[in-house]
Specification:
Layout: H1 5-15, H2 22-25, E1 28-29, E2 38-43, E3 67-72, E4 74-84, H3 85-90, H4 95-119, E5 127-129, E6 134-135, E7 147-148, H5 152-164, E8 173-178, H6 179-185, H7 189-197, E9 209-210, E10 213-218, E11 222-224, E12 249-256, E13 260-264, E14 268-275, E15 280-293, E16 301-305
Parallel strand pairs: 1-13, 5-16, 8-10
Antiparallel strand pairs: 2-3, 4-15, 6-7, 8-12, 9-10, 11-12, 12-16, 13-15, 14-15
Length: 307
Amino acid sequence: MALQKEIWISDIKENLFANNSFMNMIGIDHSPYVNYKTVHIPQAGANPAVTKNRGSYPAAISQRTDSELTYSLNEYTAEPILLTDIDALQISYSKRQSILKQHIDKLSDVVANNTLYNWAATAGAYQVRTTGSAVGTALAPSATGTRNAINLQDLRTAAKVLDESNVNMNDKRYLVLPASMYYQLIGDANISKYLEFGSATAGTGKVAQIMGFDLIVRSSVVVYDNTGTPVIKAIDDEGVPSAAAATDNLGALAISSSYVTKALGDIKVFADEDKPEYYGSIFSSLVMHGASKMRTDGVGVVSIIQA
């Protein structure tokens, strides 16, 4: 039988993004449409031409051809886990609660990873390569050799790309970056001086905002290959890059918040209690999720990729 919603579902909904705070902070929320397989986002057609001091009438009449961006929702299911009756009775801690938390944490990571990979920039115009000194640290899991460190100039370039793309300058901006790149960034001489001489954050070592970007740090963000226009690595069902290579590069995402979207459904928890053939109960969980950039041209997200 299904677990009682008032006991279980509220806990999952509250804790799902505890370690992935950017999911609650960035992007337009399309969760009300999660009961449908595909989300449709209208895309306005070309702007009308403008004539200065028009001398002939009537003006030519044209029609605007609109299009749409669509993204599909995916179903993520956590593998069932058996809780034997002997465990439930004799173990000093609540293994049932531990199993549930494990499901929550795993779904949280998978959903967050897939969100970032769907948001990452694919067009070269919205990709910035790092320009700092070559160092052998902050490497993708399978990468070898050295990469140029991320620095303050790279953030300036990313902000410039957003501004020149006519992205709303009043929109909230975020930089989601892997921890290893974050510590490279705050090691930049210009930022280090700011921390040392002018900032109250020196005591904690944490930097909240740089170049108009609120910083969000995760253990990992995205991984690209090393082609001329870097291609985002394919990911497996759990949102982990596959086909790892020694030339892979880490990426960080500079995001204007209203130019990305995500949709998240209610978490469903299932329990098959007191199964005689298993001498215990079986638990599993499910969530529907999808994410996308808001525009077909990719405006609003800049990926900062190692070089």
